[in-house]
Design a protein that fits this description.
Blueprint: H1 2-15, H2 35-40, E1 56-64, E2 77-84, E3 87-88, E4 94-95, E5 97-102, H3 110-118, H4 127-134, E6 141-153, E7 175-186, E8 193-194, H5 199-211, E9 218-221, H6 226-231, H7 233-239, E10 243-250, E11 265-270, E12 275-281
Parallel strand pairs: 5-7, 8-10
Antiparallel strand pairs: 1-2, 1-6, 2-3, 2-4, 6-7, 9-10, 10-11, 11-12
């Protein structure tokens, strides 16, 4: 938690050095928007082209912030996002990021990358060490599950009567900055292979069936349709780049309204990792 808070503070502190473009005096007063509107009546569209807080799959290239010529980016890595949910972005935005999930092998700055690679913390890195860190990292292409978030930062508007009371920050006028929250690393491809269920898969499924107290459910071993993948993107993410067994489990009793446990379920098992990847209800065909 301390690490997360520190990174948040550092991000918005560095944003001060970016020099957010201030409002031109000739532009007139901006339209006032209440906080309640931001939470309900206004959709803020970020650099990714979707509403802030929308979980998406991105394809990006890791960029060395030291090469970008702005003090805001010193010591940091950014993501140059080229695709969102398979759709190209042009121009491709470059965004700061932080890691807020599992199965992610990227880091947002020199020190956290050093710790990830060596297992040791350090408070100082020389140019040679940074060059070594960057090898194989800067320029690397990644697929990630992430969302864009934002916040306002900067010096407040001050009336003349309070001018002498102001503690000035090394910051621009109050402005808005966004960054990426990275939740999961994804395989380079969505391709997957379906194989017959192993004994380990069947044993794990037996536990699931027992937990639901189903008697003599029908099992259908096979694959998943494109319609089902479109309706449940989480299934596609669960099987992407994997060798899996897939079993559709249908209770013997008819579905009961508002009882999800009575619906047919999809069971997906990673046969390489010997680990359950997916177990959720799906709507029956009508």
């Amino acid at each position: 938690m301390k690490s997360y808070l520190l990174r948040s503070i550092l991000f918005f502190a560095m944003a001060a050095l970016a020099g957010c473009a201030g409002r031109s005096p000739s532009a007139g007063e901006p339209r006032a928007v209440s906080v309640s509107e931001l939470n309900s009546g206004v959709a803020v569209i970020g650099e990714l082209g979707v509403r802030l807080g929308t979980l998406v799959t991105i394809e990006a290239t890791i960029v060395d912030g030291d090469e970008l010529g702005s003090k805001m980016n010193w010591g940091s890595y950014l993501l140059k996002v080229t695709k969102v949910d398979g759709n190209p972005l042009n121009p491709a935005p470059m965004l700061h990021f932080y890691v807020f999930g599992s199965d992610v092998d990227i880091e947002p700055d020199h020190f956290s990358l050093y710790e990830m690679k060596t297992g040791k913390k350090t408070g100082e890195l020389n140019d040679r060490q940074i060059r070594e860190l960057n090898k194989g990292y800067v320029g690397r292409k990644v697929r990630l599950l992430a969302y864009e978030e934002g916040a306002f930062y900067g010096n407040p508007t001050v009336s003349e009567s309070l001018w002498d009371c102001m503690i000035w920050q090394s910051a621009p006028n109050f402005c808005f900055q966004t960054r990426l929250a990275v939740m999961r690393g994804l395989p380079e491809t969505d391709a997957y292979e379906v194989v017959p269920p192993s004994p380990e898969a069947l044993e794990e499924l037996r536990h699931r069936v027992d937990d639901n107290e189903w008697k003599a459910p029908r099992l259908k071993v096979g694959t998943v349709s494109e319609d089902l993948l479109k309706a449940h993107p989480s299934i596609r993410r669960a099987i992407a780049g994997k060798k899996v067994s897939i079993i559709e489990v249908t209770p013997a009793s008819p579905p009961v309204d508002d009882d999800l446990s009575s619906l047919p379920h999809i069971f997906i098992f990673d046969e390489n990792e010997k680990d359950e990847r997916f177990w959720r209800p799906v709507e029956p065909k009508r």
